[in-house]
Amino acid sequence: MDRKDLGLSLLTGVLLFFSFPKFGHGWVVWFALIPLFFALRGKSPGMAFSIGGIAGFAANLGILYWVAGAVIRYGYLSTVTGYSVLLLLVLVMSLYVALFAAVLAVLTGRGIPEILAAPPLWTLIEFGKSRLFSGFPWENLGYALHDNVPILQFADVAGVFGLSFLIVFVNAVLFDIFRLNRTNRRRVSIAIVFTSISVLLLFFYGHYRIEQVERMGKDGRALEVAVVQGNIEQAVKWNPAYQLRTLEVYETLSREILRERADLLVWPETAMPFFLQDGDEKQRRVRALARDNRVDLVAGSPGYREKGGRIVYGNSAFLITQDGAVSGRYDKVHLVPFGEYVPLKRFFSFAEKLVAGAGDFVPGTGFVPLPTERGDKLGVLICYEGIFPEIGRAYKRAGADLLVNITNDGWYGRTSAPWQHLSMAAFRAVENRMYLVRAANTGISAIVSPTGKIEGRTDLFERTTLRGTVRIFPMETLYSRYGDYFVCFCFVFFVILLLYPRRRKMVHD
Length: 509
Prior knowledge:
By secondary structure, the protein is α/β, with parallel strands linked by helices. Helices cover 48% and strands 15% of the residues.
């Protein structure tokens, strides 16, 4: 690999990093892959694998740098082990980009242009990354468009993978334009016209859907929601001596915001750092708060249940209704590997320290909405679950009226992670055309409209509350009905490409 190829691959990595929050901007992603495409031209699959791996490593190191601080400070790992965990994760994530580059080199070597090969290939590999080994869809390419509200509306058709496809397609077209602008002006002109029309159609679709959703929302049932952000320091959160003080913080903030009537009150993940099920004085105080203020309360707490003759623990959310009854419970289904449980423990014994800071939990059994006293059905996504499209869709299919994302992002400090986490969770509102209410212990708490617009949000590391009005109305989407069917189309198209007869490249290529 020469210096030029190394520089181009690193440039793509840096541009991908600057496509995501908090340091980046979504518009960068439209040309982030162009240097990589130039570096891959004429390369063997093995060399392309190396070039793609370098680009992926640089991008993921920038996007995921916060992992080291979290596992060192709160996972009780040594500095060396913590940074080794980060580098291992980044290395694994870079393999997906390396695989993309290697296969793309094979296809272009057969005369198939990037504009046809790259978009479906990237989409399929990204889908695999999101599902294999429990899945890690953190900052899939489409999430870079979280603040491009008109284009974002396409997520209700094809999900985040459809937006990833669009981004790679535009990158490939721009690459074609730069590469062929002097040798094949006709092909360049066709590419410009076709791409311009496609993007304009998406903008028109986006504006149409925004107007349609907002019009339907006006006729929807109004629900006054209140969010409490306790800002409890992670270092003392699980200290038994601090339990009552934590409860007092949430009680005080809740009473302040409930001076004005609210229908739903939301506390963050593990806002109650004790077992609400125990039925002690702490539970009675929480129930009294809901009863005295005639409000439905969703709050996080560790939970336990019997399974196979033994007691197992879960990361849970409880619903306390307006009459003070603990009427519903959801146990987190998609747990965080090495954060809430250790897969293959005998191979990863060092990771036992990580779950010591959170809990060695057992997953729940399904995504069942929690019904409030007034009949609204709440789809609760706990922390990490907010980044998985299939979970939001499962709640929509189960009849949920509102998505509630409770999380504790205190692990991440003031790094990029809280901004990244919110930007991904916001997609669940658009995909399913439901409001999403988000309560985060240290921020960022937010209320997200069904168009993906952030209607209200808090800042990081402040003890505060958030109030807003959400609307509940029935609106089904192609994505909520059929899921990731767009990925199936990509798979079929990719198979056709593989069967495409090998041909000699055109002279101008």
